[in-house]
Amino acid sequence: MKIAFFSAKPYEKDFFNHALPDFQHEINYLEVKLDTHTANFAAGAEAVCVFVNDIVNAAVLTQLAAQGVKLIALRCAGYNNVDLKAAAQHGIAVVRVPAYSPYSVAEHTIALILTLNRKTHRAYNRVRENNFSLDGLLGFDLHGKTVGLIGLGKIGLATAQILKGFGCKVLGYDVQTTAEAVAVGVEFTTFDALLQQSDIVSLHCPLNPHTKYLINEQAIGKMKNGVMLINTSRGGLIDTKAVIQGLKSKKIAYLGLDVYEEEGDLFFEDLSTEVIADDTFTRLLTFPNVLITGHQAFFTQNAMQSIAQTTLQNIRSFEQGELRNQV
User: Fold this and answer.
1) What is the mean pLDDT for each group of 10 consecutive residues in the chain (327 residues)?
2) Which of 54, 67, 259, 228 is nearest to 149 (CA)?
3) 2-100+301-319 with 102-292: one CATH topology?
4) 234 is catalytic
5) What is the CATH number of domain 102-292?
6) Among 8, 62, 180, 283, which is most exposed with the fewest C-beta within 10 angstroms?
């Protein structure tokens, strides 16, 4: 099957090309992001492969359908960037990679927590300048802290397992209680109770109309003073301006983000010689207690191998008249 592969990065090409001999697909790697201006690049393709910041709205889907595209293959788990209703109206199937390596994101979550707490990023730079002072590097024992996980899917569950190993009390909030999470030792509670009791709040739920700005001014007001907030899921879960106010008031003492609500024009690109026009994002960068990584939580060898294999298999199954991992 001919595939138009948007937002292609060199590292993705390596993993997909390595897996490609096991399949009969023909991939056209395109560096551009999919939107209304680039949808015409899919001409001649039967499938379009997209990532988290590609725009797959009704207008784009109309263009793709006119060119004969029959399948949108997401190489990620989230699908908030796809207009599913419009896809169905055009007869375009949508498939995804529901699970690649939950451990990759869970471990990055822990990395953000530990780095913010023990300030290893600041210590690294100090030592390189022969500054061995400990002033400003004081942390706390993670052991015994209460961590609230919002979303207990595969990633949330993996995060809970690691935190229990650290000796944390883990609270959970999800639309449903899972036996696996209970077995790990997660104590399910209400959303408000989790916010009120947690020293650390970490987000692991999908972005949809019900979870948009789940963390807003009201939610932040219910949190403990000095809370640590972590988001490795989707940027739109957090109202960034409300979080900035939380940082300024010192309600939020630590903020760790691997995602940002307006990351589409920033993340996955080298903008080191550019002026960032997003004033909200640049404001975040001014806080010494904020740590931001550029949507790299998923980025491990294991996860990339799984993403390539599952994506290509999803496309093969569609070609054979089956639908695997349909959204």
Assistant:
1) 97 96 95 97 97 97 98 95 97 95 96 98 97 98 98 96 98 94 97 98 96 98 98 98 98 98 94 96 98 97 97 97 95
2) 228
3) yes
4) yes
5) 3.40.50.720
6) 180
Residues 253-306 pLDDT 10s: 999 999 999 999 999 999 999 999 999 999 999 999 999 999 999 999 999 999
Q: Looking at residue 132, what DSSP letter applies? A: -
Given 12, 108, 234, 261, the catalytic residue:
234
In the annotation, is 262 catalytic?
no
Find the catalytic residue in 26, 295, 322, 324: 295
Q: Which helix (H) or strand (E) holds 181?
A: helix 179-184
Catalytic residue among 128, 263, 283, 316: 263
Domain ranges of the chain: 2-100+301-319, 102-292
Please report the beta strands in 83-222, taking only residues with DSSP state E, as ranges in sequence order. Answer: 93-95, 146-150, 169-173, 187-188, 200-203
- CATH 3.20.20.70 at 2-100+301-319, yes or no: no
- Name the DSSP class of 7: S
Q: Is 204 a catalytic residue?
A: no
